[in-house]
Design a protein that fits this description.
single chain; mainly alpha; globular
């Protein structure tokens, strides 16, 4: 299983977004099919602190597995 590759890994930018520019919300599970975030997480990303961003990142692999199992 491979994780999504963040778009921005520049030094000094904090925790990079997991966005992979595949912005399509799955109507069944409510997650983006590209990055596996919720709409609330996507909307709040720019104001989340680094700890909260890392918590979202930590949840993504399990979400991807669950989303793929439902297909």
């Amino acid at each position: 299983m491979s994780a999504a590759v963040p778009k921005d890994r520049r030094a000094g930018q904090g925790v990079a977004s997991p966005c992979v520019s595949v912005c399509v919300m799955d109507p069944v599970c409510g997650l983006c099919t590209g990055c596996c975030r919720t709409l609330d997480e996507i909307a709040a990303w720019s104001v989340l602190d680094d700890a909260a961003k890392r918590a979202v990142w930590a949840a993504l692999p399990a979400r991807r597995v669950k989303m793929n199992a439902g297909r």
